[in-house]
Amino acid sequence: MYKTEGIILRNTGVKDKDVILTILTKDFGKKNIYVRSYLDPKTKYFGRLEVPSHIEFMFIKRKNSTYLLTGLEQIRGFCDMFYNPYLYTLFSIGSEVTLKMLPYEERNELIYKWFKWFLYFLNSKKMEEYLAVYLIRFLYLSGFFPIKNRCGKCGKKNPLYFTVSGLEIFCIDCVKDGKRFYPSYVLEYIKRMFEKDFLKKIQFKGIKEVIDFLILFIEEIVEEKILSYRVLATVGK
Ligand SMILES: [Zn+2]
């Protein structure tokens, strides 16, 4: 029997009324947990295991090496998030990146700590900034930061405009066509986000470009689209 706390990233129906939860846990990394009869209104867990609930739970390892939920206490449900589609989409971006990039069963308490921080503080005036800081922390803790600030072809430092390809940046003189270009302040901003109390100090107009760059960078890593980011443009704030 194991016990830990975690945040539900995904809830997928399987057969009958069973579901598989993908949970970012404090002590065991990202984990899939099987729940029997969850979709039956008579079960004691009904409605308490929705994304993005913060829960404390118990589970056992079954003979076939999968895990089964055996006990639950909901710490906070965050169901109010559904009433704000823009906020929920921002959360979904952070969650989708975590789902796609983080390997299973790899314990990383700092990633858990930052994801929890992101979930609890996202509903504020600076919601885009909170997403950006989470993505930067996540990339850093996953070993992808810092990004080199020199053009991968000509070596120019801090180019005025740059794009990203294969986890390197390229200045506008070296890559003429194709991808989006970003102004140099995007990299400067990312660097400054590691400063203490950075979010309290600054309100930043270019935050959307920072997020756009981070998503492009992440899509280069996972080699697929972050779908919830495509949705963001269609959701009004
Ligand atoms: Zn160059």
Characterise the protein shown here.
By secondary structure, the chain is an alpha+beta fold. It has two domains: 2-77, OB fold (Dihydrolipoamide Acetyltransferase, E2P) (Beta Barrel), CATH 2.40.50.140; 82-232, Up-down Bundle (de novo design (two linked rop proteins)). Helices cover 33% and strands 23% of the residues. It contains seven helices and eight strands. It has helices at residues 85-101, 109-121, 127-141, 185-192, 198-201, 207-222, 227-232, and strands at residues 2-13, 19-25, 29-35, 54-61, 67-76, 161-165, 168-171, 182-183. The protein has a five-stranded antiparallel sheet with strand order 3-2-1-4-5. Strands 7-6-8 form a three-stranded antiparallel sheet. Strand 1 and strand 2 form a beta hairpin. The longest helix is centred in the middle third of the chain and has 17 residues, at 85-101. It is elongated. It starts with a strand and ends in a 5-residue tail after the last helix. Bound molecules: zinc ion. Zinc ion binds next to strand 7.
- Percent range for β-strand residues: 15-25%
Largest pleated sheet? 5 strands, antiparallel
Kindly report the CATH topology of the largest domain: de novo design (two linked rop proteins)
Structural class: alpha+beta
What is the CATH architecture annotation of the largest domain? Up-down Bundle
Share of helix, binned: 25-40%
Low-confidence stretches: none
CATH level-1 class of the largest domain: Mainly Alpha
Shape: elongated
Radius of gyration, in angstroms, nearest whole number: 20 Å
The CATH homologous superfamily name of the largest domain equals Recombination protein O, C-terminal domain
Output the helix-strand order.
EEEEEHHHEEEHHHH
Helix count, DSSP H or I runs of 4 or more residues: 7
User: Count of DSSP E strands?
Assistant: 8
Distance between the termini: 44 Å
Number of discrete domains: 2
| Average pLDDT | 93
Strand order across the largest sheet: 3-2-1-4-5
What hetero molecules are bound to the protein chains?
Answer: zinc ion
